Each structure stands twice: as C-alpha cells, then as structure tokens.
C-alpha cells in the first residue's frame, strides 16, 4: 500500500461538550453553537478536509449541527452520523439529500447502529446486537436506492417502504459516501459490500492491521473495494516531553472514583465489541496507559469509543502515523482537548511533517519578500529577514 499520498485529515465537533481536564468541571466548555462555529471555521481554514459530528443521547442532533455550520464554511465536509431506526430510511434520505444540497456536496455519512441497548431503547429500538445489523441492512437498501434513483420499495422483515419517493437528489452522485465503524463479526459482515470507508478506533497498529485484513477480505468476497480510516486523539507539542506533560495534565483532575464509575457504566450499558476492545487496552488502570509506543489510552479511562491519543513531537507522531498508513489507513479523524486550540496545534505542528498543505492564506502575505512575524508595533508587524 502506497504511503505517498498525504493522509486525509478530518477534525471533530465536540457536540457532547469540551474542556481542558477530563473528569472535571474546571475550564469546561458545555455544548454551544457559537463555539462549534469557531471550531468549524478554524478547521476549514487550517487544512482539515472535514469534521466528524457524532450522535448519541449526550450529543446535539448531528444533521442540524451540520446544517447550521455549512453556511459558515467553504470546503469543510461533514461526516454526519446516521443511526438506523431513529427515523425511517425515507425520512433520513430526505434530510441527507437536503443537507448535501445545502452544503453543495459536502456531506459524508457515518453509519452507527449504536452500542448501548439501554440508549437504543430510549429511541424505541429493541433489537439485539447482531439483529441491529440485519435491520440496518434493510434500512440502507431503501436509503441508498432513494438517494440514487429517487424511488424505493421494500417489503422486508424490519423495514417496509411502499412506493417511497425522494423529490430532490443529492448533489453528489450516485450519493454521499458511506463510512462505517463497528468491530463485531456481524458489523464487518454487514459493512462489506456497503461501506466505502471502514473506520476503526485507535487501537495499536498490530490490531488495526488484523482488522484491516479481515475487512478487506470480507469486502473483496462481495466484490467491493474499501478504504480505511482511523479515529484518534492527538497531543502534539514541540518536544516529546512537553507532549507527555500535556497528556498527564489532561487527566490530572480525574479521580479514581470517576474512572471506576465510567468503566462500570461502559461494561453495564454497552454491548459494542469495538468498545470492549478499547476498554481492554488499559483495563481501567491509570498506570499502564502507553499501550503501544506513543499511543496513550488515558482518554478511554472516562470516554467511551475513541479513547486513545498519539502523544509526542511532530516528528514522533508523524512516524507513528506512517505505521498506520503502511497498513492501509488513508484517513484520520482527529481531535484533541480543547478542540479549538488543538486544531491549531495539530495543523501548525503536525501538518508540515505530513505534507498536508494546512492553512494557506487566501490573500498574498507580501510582495514576494521573505517575512518573519515580528510581534507588531510601529512600522509594521512583519519584518524582512536580513540576508535571506
Ligand atoms: C469512528 C467511529 C465513530 C463512531 N461514532 C459513533 C457515534 O457517533 N455514535 C454511536 O452511537 N456510535 C458510534 N460509533 C460506534 C459504532 O458505530 C458501533 O455502533 C458500535 O461500536 C457497535 O458496533 P460493534 O459491536 O460492531 O463494534 C463509532 C465508531 C467508530 C469507529
């Protein structure tokens, strides 16, 4: 697999809230749309190709969030979570087509069936783990057909759609791309032949390699090509030492009781194979958090799902990313706490190492004279570098 193409780098809109210290209310930032707008406009300018917008009872509604952000951004794509069963496939097809039209073709869809029977019951979904994928399979037969052709019919076990119609097609043809993240055999089987991009949470490279091989084979058996993405947090600083200090600081106000409570909650309320693989990395212990070189599982002590971060200097982190790229990963969905400041850090420190163009000023910075930032003041805040 070639590593020559720069990684496609997306950022994250923290609709469950944001902050500087996990497990603490100090310097926290509750969900706030003006803040999301700041993050989205920053990500758009800083060279990220898109943002992931999650779904759960702890999040704002992702299609509405994307629709609110689209007019304030230019190139940014929106990877929006679709949870089959929370609405009919025909209704989801209408909102997906409308959002693709509002954003002029910037919609990506993330299929998430959900990993908590308790949370799904609140949404009126009472299916066992594997059956959720059988239901999702019928859901996407109707959803895709509507987006691709404007019409669909299905008399399925779970989904019935009689002469379903879609009035307005999406901008993207045949439809917005489908992403999928689920680690169970049922999930991988479901996604093969359907998903355009398979996503994994940030497990160590050897585990990701195993999954990639399994997913690639499942897709090939159904005659489909699939590409791969990874969901990771980033703690990048100028030196490795500073980055590890920042990682320690992030959990410096996190109590053992909060960790125990969170871990118990995940065990009790989750039947997600992906989640149990992530929890097994650290076992709820704060003394064994570097689960593979520079891969730190501290976030997973209290956050479900994406619980690992790459920690280090730009060169260190770029080398670790190259390992994933060599396995076949071409897309990174990144985040960091707090999301506005860390979007800048990742772009300014890491993107140059990865060959990602990053923030390109829309106006010329000078009349072709080399410049340095000089802090401002009388006579102009940009000075010509002597001798360069
Ligand atoms: C990158 C990524 C993003 C995800 N986003 C969400 C989300 O927004 N909401 C959600 O309920 N589950 C989300 N999931 C969880 C999975 O979609 C899936 O529902 C869960 O892991 C159960 O599947 P499994 O048992 O097959 O692993 C995400 C997973 C991945 C890998």
UniProtKB/TrEMBL annotation:
Enzyme Commission number(s) from the entry: 1.14.14.5
Reaction(s) this enzyme catalyzes, per UniProt: an alkanesulfonate + FMNH2 + O2 = an aldehyde + FMN + sulfite + H2O + 2 H(+)
Domain Luciferase-like: 8-330
Sample GO molecular function, one term: alkanesulfonate monooxygenase activity
Keyword terms of this UniProt record: Flavoprotein, FMN, Monooxygenase, Oxidoreductase
Enzyme class: oxidoreductase
Protein name: Alkanesulfonate monooxygenase
Upper classification of the organism: Bacteria, Pseudomonadati, Pseudomonadota, Alphaproteobacteria, Hyphomicrobiales
Gene: ssuD
Stated family: Belongs to the SsuD family.
InterPro entries: Alkanesulphonate_mOase_FMN-dep, Luciferase-like_dom, Luciferase-like_sf, SsuD_RutA_monooxygenase
């Amino acid at each position: 697999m070639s590593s020559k193409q720069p990684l496609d780098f997306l950022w994250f809109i923290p609709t469950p809230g944001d902050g500087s210290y996990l497990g603490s209310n100090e310097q926290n930032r509750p969900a706030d749309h003006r803040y999301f707008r700041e993050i989205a406009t920053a990500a758009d300018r800083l060279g990220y190709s898109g943002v992931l917008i999650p779904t759960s009872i702890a999040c704002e509604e992702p299609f509405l969030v994307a629709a609110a952000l689209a007019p304030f951004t230019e190139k940014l794509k929106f990877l929006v979570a679709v949870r089959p069963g929370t609405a009919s496939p025909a209704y989801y097809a209408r909102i997906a087509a409308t959002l693709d039209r509002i954003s002029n073709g910037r919609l990506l869809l993330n299929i998430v069936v959900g990993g908590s029977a308790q949370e799904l019951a609140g949404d009126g979904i009472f299916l066992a783990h594997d059956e959720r994928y059988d239901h999702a399979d019928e859901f996407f037969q109707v959803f895709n057909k509507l987006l691709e052709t404007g019409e669909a019919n299905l008399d399925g076990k779970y989904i019935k759609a009689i002469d379903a119609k879609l009035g307005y097609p999406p901008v993207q043809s045949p439809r917005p791309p489908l992403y999928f993240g689920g680690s169970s055999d049922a999930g991988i089987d479901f996604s093969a032949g359907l998903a355009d991009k398979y996503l994994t949470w940030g497990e160590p490279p050897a585990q990701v390699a195993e999954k990639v091989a399994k997913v690639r084979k499942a897709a090939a058996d159904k005659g489909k090509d699939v590409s791969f993405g990874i969901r990771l947090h980033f703690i990048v600083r100028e030196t490795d030492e500073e980055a590890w200090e920042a990682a320690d600081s992030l959990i410096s106000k996190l109590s053992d009781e909060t960790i125990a409570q969170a871990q118990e909650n995940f065990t009790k309320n989750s039947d997600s194979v992906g989640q149990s693989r992530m929890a097994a990395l650290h076992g709820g212990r704060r003394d064994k958090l570097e689960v593979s070189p520079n891969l730190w599982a501290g976030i997973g002590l209290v956050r479900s799902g994406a619980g690992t971060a790459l920690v280090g200097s730009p060169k260190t982190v770029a080398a670790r990313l190259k390992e994933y790229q060599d396995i076949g990963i071409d897309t990174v969905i990144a985040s960091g706490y707090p999301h506005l400041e860390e979007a800048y850090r990742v772009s300014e420190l890491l993107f140059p190492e990865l060959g990602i163009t990053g923030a390109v000023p829309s106006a010329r910075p000078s009349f072709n004279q080399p410049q340095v930032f000089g802090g401002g003041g009388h006579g102009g805040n940009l000075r010509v570098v002597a001798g360069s």
